[in-house]
Specification:
The complex is a heterodimer of chains A (108) and B (115). With 108 residues, chain A is an all-beta fold. Chain A has no helices and eleven strands. Helix content of chain B is 0%, strand content 55%. Chain B has strands at residues 4-7, 10-13, 19-25, 30-38, 45-51, 57-58, 67-73, 76-81, 90-98, 104-106, 110-114.
């Protein structure tokens, strides 16, 4: 099975940098995803890591260490619209399983 | 990008009735589809994984006779909530993947309210 943990809530200030961590235990691994979800909406894709290292895409970066079962999502130059839930998900064999999710609140 | 359409977006039904939710991949063939439910302020909980033409694989604790999943074609999967009760009220979301790819594309979600 899978066990995927994230902090429940985080707060940050507009313009700052925030790092959202995800730790996991899984019996099979075919990649790790980060999604953003606003309340009442479907998740939207942010990033995908299957090899160790950092993937950068604009203001968002995602890091993976498979040996440590660890990933983080880094958000730079935070904007008010970044207030949302951020979901870490593992593709394990046929399944796509989500972590507990982190609610991020960005304040002025 | 790949588009997944989920219908209806909102549905209200009476307790004891059944509700069908459709999930369609509009511009690609979806070899695998996932169904999730989400309670307020919680993450997505995987209910089942379905592959075209075969029976769905349900997660532990999900009643397969209550949540009927059909994946009859490469572009359509349906979830039927049978004999719905108020505790089934939730946000249901489908997602689909293409053959030999890991990224999942999500539908818009369905807000089910059972009264």
């Amino acid at each position: 099975g899978q066990n995927i943990d994230q902090p429940t809530e985080m707060t940050a200030t507009e313009g700052a940098i925030v790092q959202i961590n995800c730790t996991y235990q899984t019996s099979g691994f075919n990649g790790l995803f980060w999604y953003q979800q606003h309340a009442g909406e479907a998740p939207t894709f942010l990033s995908y890591n299957v090899l160790d290292g950092l993937e950068e895409k604009g203001r968002f970066s995602s890091f993976l260490s498979r040996s440590k079962g660890y990933s983080y999502l880094l958000l730079k130059e935070l904007q008010m619209k970044d207030s949302a839930s951020y979901l870490c998900a593992i593709r394990s064999f046929q399944k796509l399983v989500f972590g507990t999710g982190t609610r991020l609140l960005v304040s002025p | 990008g790949a588009v997944v359409s989920q219908h209806p977006s909102r549905v209200i039904c009476k307790s004891g009735t059944s509700v069908k939710i459709e999930c369609r991949s509009l511009d690609f063939q979806a070899t695998t589809m996932f169904w999730y439910r989400q309670f307020p302020k919680q993450s997505l909980m995987l209910m089942a994984t379905s592959n075209e033409g075969s029976k769905a694989t349900y997660e532990q604790g999900v009643e397969k006779d209550k949540f009927l999943i059909n994946h009859a074609s490469l572009t359509l999967s349906t979830l039927t909530v049978t004999s719905a009760h108020p505790e089934d009220s939730s946000f249901y979301i489908c997602s689909a993947t293409r053959d030999r790819e890991n990224e999942a594309f999500f539908g818009q979600g369905t807000r089910l309210t059972v009264v």
